[in-house]
Design goal:
Blueprint lengths: L9 E7 L2 E8 L3 H9 L6 E6 H16 L4 E6 L8 H14 L6 E6 L1 H13 L5 E6 L2 H5 L6 E6 L2 E8 L4 E5 L8 H17 L5 H9 L6 H19 L16 H15 L6 H18 L5 H13 L12 H9 L13 E4 L2 E3 L2 E2 L8 E4 H17 L1
Parallel strand pairs: 2-9, 3-4, 3-5, 5-6, 6-9
Antiparallel strand pairs: 1-2, 7-8, 10-13, 11-12
The protein binds nicotinamide-adenine-dinucleotide.
Nicotinamide-adenine-dinucleotide binds next to helix 2, helix 4, helix 5, strand 8 and helix 6.
Length: 387
């Protein structure tokens, strides 16, 4: 990110059902964030991060916070593999051994992985202690911190073990995004693309404009992503803060996307596909399935494919993972049980038009034959061979 001039300290009020919390945004403001956290009068800070973010941005925060209260740094190597019960258990034991109490505060610094791990830690310690997020990826800043869902993965798939826990506040320092690789910056835009396709198609033009620029790392892009992320999520989460009903539309692209992300990161660790890239592929697959059952036309599918390509995600299967392993994870998707499906079906969000889910409004899921999923995922493999 070359020059980001978000110099003002601004605050947005986030509302999800009965839950409200402030979302502060500033530039080069880790000191100010630390100062603000001190007002919470915590007896200890439990800083959940990963080793990359700790190295890049952690020291400054720890230095500031530890002037006033002890800081326990809970840091793991980056990547989806650490979103596990084993790492969570290690964090819990280390926090307790360090003397964490009900008056302690969990502070997450990083992307969605430390965010989710820290969210689980805060929810479980003494049945719930305070949680503050400092997101340092676009996915976290625009998406995961705007959700009450916290989870870790199981050996069978993504986000199988989780709960709901709200942060007391979110603080984003836009300057921390400067160190993100371009690919990770774009990852957040993929979630934005999902919001546009499934909830607010009127924002597609602006998304295309941002993608047409040479770099997505501009002040305008960040501001737009934040405003658009809040607008789209607020639309559904004000009334469905737990994302169990109408809010399930946010799962668009996630059934197959999560499976590809899970398998690829299991194979390649943190060098695997990013969350946003995987969701883009999941949306292409979902659109092709909608076409196969006759509810979306070629233009809508081409729009999905074009958007994915513009996001830097050619609609192809990433290397090193097989159709069978992806399908096994799809079959274990964590939406199982929301909708009665047979063992030959998966519950998915599909669209019947841009911004209009195919399933019922109060729970937009449909049962999709796994053979259709298989065909659409096989299509990605075929496309990778052709290119
Ligand atoms: N509702 C929710 O809670 C929700 C929503 C969306 C995503 N998620 C979860 O979030 C995770 C994906 O989030 P993510 O993409 O942020 O993943 P991540 O936390 O793994 O971060 C991605 C990579 O960026 C690096 N990184 C983070 N900040 C950096 C910085 N400022 N500079 C340089 N490198 C930096 C990390 O070290 C990591 O390698 C998934 O596990 C997904 O399931 C949860």
């Amino acid at each position: 990110m070359s020059q980001v001039a978000v110099t003002q300290w601004s605050m947005r009020d986030i509302e999800m059902g009965d839950v409200r919390f402030p979302y502060y945004v500033g530039y080069d403001c880790l000191d100010r964030i630390a100062h603000s956290l001190l007002a919470a009068d915590a007896d200890r800070f439990l800083l959940v991060t990963d080793t990359t973010v700790e190295r890049l941005h952690g020291d400054r925060l720890v230095e500031e916070l530890s002037r006033h209260a002890p800081v326990t740094v809970l840091s793991k190597p980056p990547g989806e593999a650490t979103k596990s019960l084993a790492c969570l258990s290690e964090h819990l034991e280390r926090a307790l051994a360090a003397g964490a109490s009900r008056a302690s505060m969990v502070v997450t610094l990083g992307g969605g992985v430390p965010g989710n791990l820290g969210g689980m830690l805060a929810a479980l310690l003494y049945r719930g202690i305070r949680l503050v997020h400092i997101p340092t990826t676009t996915v976290a800043a625009m998406d995961s911190v705007l959700s009450l869902k916290q989870a870790v993965n199981s050996p069978f798939g993504k986000n199988h073990i989780g709960c709901y826990h709200a942060p007391t506040a979110v603080y984003a320092d836009v300057a921390t995004l400067l160190t993100l690789p371009e690919r990770e910056l774009r990852s957040g835009l993929c979630e934005m693309a999902k919001n546009c396709l499934a909830i607010r198609p009127q924002a597609l033009t602006e998304l295309h404009e941002i993608l047409g620029e040479s770099s997505v790392a501009s002040e305008e892009a960040f501001e737009w992503m934040l405003e658009e992320g809040i607008a789209a999520k607020s639309l559904v989460m004000r009334r469905d803060p737990h994302e169990r009903h109408a809010g399930l539309v946010l799962e668009y692209g996630h059934t197959v996307g999560h499976a590809i992300e899970y398998c690829h990161q299991r194979r390649w660790g943190s060098h695997g596909i990013s969350h946003g890239e995987a969701i883009s592929l999941g949306m292409v697959v979902a659109a092709r399935i909608s076409r196969a059952i006759g509810v979306l036309d070629d233009d809508a599918v081409a729009l999905h494919e074009g958007l994915a390509a513009a996001l830097g995600v050619p609609p192809e299967m990433p290397d090193g993972i097989s159709l069978d392993e992806v399908l096994a994870v799809v079959a274990a998707d964590n939406k199982r049980g929301y909708l009665k499906v047979t063992q030959h079906e998966a519950a998915m969000v599909l669209l019947r038009a841009l911004g209009v889910p195919l399933g019922p409004v109060d729970r937009p899921l449909v049962a999709v034959d796994l053979e259709l999923v298989e065909d659409a995922v096989a299509g990605l493999i075929l496309d990778s061979r052709v290119s």
